[in-house]
Design goal:
With about 375 residues, the chain is an alpha+beta fold. It is built from 11 helices and 10 strands. It has helices at about 1-5, 10-35, 70-85, 95-100, 120-125, 135-145, 170-185, 190-225, 280-290, 315-320, 325-335, and strands spanning about 235-240, 245-250, 255-260, 265, 270-275, 295-300, 305-310, 345-350, 355-360, 360-365. Helix 2 (about 10-35) packs across helix 4, helix 3 (about 70-85) packs across helix 7 (about 170-185) and helix 7 crosses helix 8.
């Protein structure tokens, strides 16, 4: 919020100052702090040099407007920020050099007491800091925000990455930032075209996988729309484009169960759908299953709340019998229904005509929205 509302630039020169400060923070201060915490001559507990093997000692960069890479970062970053705020950009190096020279860059002072974990296991042992008070943090943020009247006409524009436009500074920024970090660690730098090639491989990989998975899902949806499709027509798909590998298998049918010895078969996908076009009382709900399905309901639950059971206190049963099912849920589970919610799911236990306990599907009960 502070970066977008309080520190909003009103000119390209202010965007240049912002870019210069980001350069100092990313490529000098952070590295200098790292070296302060872990000096180049530091040794581990076993006596081996800390900066050895895969750990390369970094070097803080000293900004120079005469270095094309340094100035390239400033130009790209400033223009991208100017685009965010609807300001006119520029490619004139003289303008950027002049603005950079006028920027006030604070001298780096190492922060004391900063702890950087060098081992994931060590990081797990460090006790987590207590979370800040949310109300105090919110009040502090609100106090820094400008008055709404000062934001009249305020607009921001997001940057949509496009690697093939050489005038939008996207690849310029990525090339400058990645090469500056590489220079920190004495890693071979990549030119503009190599950077564009690497960035180009990232985006299509994501888009291709997404489109492939979406296509496979749509194929299965089309099958669902066709009546009487056997389960053998549907497919599970496994895809790994890195190998590349594509494999399909037939889904396993849901296990079938039977309601008692003579009842209908059902699976976990089935439901008793109770929709009488009006609310049912608990008494009517019990009678519904007795008359329609020849089942004696011995228990009804909604979530973790028991709405009815044969062992419930008779006084409570007498009070609940005239209540509608939605009233029962609200009364017992203290649930609040969403405005768009029209049905409830109940789990019931039943006995069949032979007084045997039988497994039955869940109940989908409609209580409004007819």
């Amino acid at each position: 919020l502070a970066a977008t509302l309080v520190e909003k630039p009103i000119s390209l020169e202010q965007c240049v100052v912002w870019a210069r400060l980001r350069f100092e923070e990313l490529f000098h201060n952070q590295i200098a702090q790292l070296i302060f915490n872990f000096p180049l001559d530091m040794a581990t507990s076993s006596g081996a040099p800390f900066w050895s093997g895969p750990k390369r000692p970094p070097t803080p960069l000293q900004f120079s407007a005469d270095d094309p890479l340094h100035l390239g970062f400033i130009i790209a970053a400033a223009n991208l920020r100017a685009f965010n705020y609807g300001l006119k950009g520029s490619t004139d190096p003289a303008l950027f050099k002049k603005a950079v020279e006028a920027a006030m860059v604070p001298e780096f002072v190492p922060k004391q007491g900063v702890k950087i974990a060098t081992d994931p296991k060590e990081a797990e042992k460090v006790p987590a800091a207590p979370p800040p008070d949310e109300d105090e943090a919110s009040d502090a943020i609100v106090a820094t925000l400008p008055a709404p009247s000062s934001l009249a006409g305020y607009r921001m524009t997001p940057v949509d990455f496009e690697k093939d436009d050489d005038t939008n500074f996207h690849i310029d920024f990525i090339a400058a930032a990645s090469n500056l970090r590489a220079r920190n660690y004495k890693i071979t730098e990549a030119d503009h075209h190599r950077t564009k090639q690497i960035a180009g491989k990232i985006i299509p990989a994501i888009a291709t996988t997404t489109s492939l998975v979406t296509g496979l899902v749509c194929l299965e949806l089309l099958k669902l729309m066709q009546p009487a499709k056997p389960i053998e027509s549907f497919k599970n798909g496994f895809v790994n484009l890195a190998l590349p590998f594509v494999s399909f298998s037939e889904p396993i049918a849901a296990p079938k169960r039977k309601i008692g010895a003579k009842g209908a078969e059902w699976t976990l996908w089935d439901r008793y759908e109770v929709d009488e076009g009006r609310e049912l009382t608990l008494k009517e709900f019990l009678a519904y299953f007795q008359e329609r399905h020849k089942l004696e309901v011995t228990m009804i639950s909604s979530g973790v709340s028991i709405l009815y059971s044969f062992f419930t206190n008779q006084k409570k049963l007498k009070e609940r019998m005239p209540m509608t099912m939605s009233q029962l849920v609200q009364e017992i589970s203290k649930a609040e229904f969403k405005p768009t919610q029209n049905s409830l799911t109940f789990e019931i236990c039943c006995n069949d005509e032979d007084d045997e306990d039988v497994e039955v599907p869940f109940v989908q009960y409609k209580f409004r929205g007819w």
